[in-house]
Each structure stands twice: as C-alpha cells, then as structure tokens.
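@here heads up, posting the sequence + SMILES for the zinc ion run so it's all in one place. Ping me if the SMILES looks off, I pulled it from an old spreadsheet.
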Amino acid sequence: METCRRCGAALSMDETGLNRKLIHRGVETFLCIRCLAAEFRTTVGALVAQADRFRAAGCSMFPPKRSPGLADIADA
Ligand SMILES: [Zn+2]
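bot reply: prediction finished. Complex structure tokens:
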C-alpha cells in the first residue's frame, strides 16, 4: 500500500492514479487526495470528479468502484 509522502495517509488506487495523471505517469512518491488538492489549489471534490471522469473513460489506473469511497469524503 502506498502512503502520502506529505502526511502519511494510506492511498487508494484513485489517489495514486490522480498523482500519475496530474504530476507524471512515472511518479514514485504520491500525495493523498487532500494534499493533492492543496498542491494544485483545488478541492477534494474537484479531484474526485476528475477521477470519476478518468474512470468513465475506461482508464485502467482508476478501477471500477465496488464500494463507497472517496465520494464520501467529497460530500463530507
Ligand atoms: Zn497527504
């Protein structure tokens, strides 16, 4: 399991996928979605929506959702 290099949070596949999409495909250290939002001056909700768009496009870095996950964070 990858962890955030800034805060140490455990990362989901969506989070590592977003790092690869937003930073670089070959990144080896990752940020969690909250730290990514801070880094890119955006919101967690916007990043979740972006991950969902990649998923809808069939991107293999964003596996289909089996259970509620990041969307719940965005709604909180
Ligand atoms: Zn973090």
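MO: Helices lie at 13-22, 33-39, 44-56, 70-75.
MO: One more: The mean pLDDT is 89.
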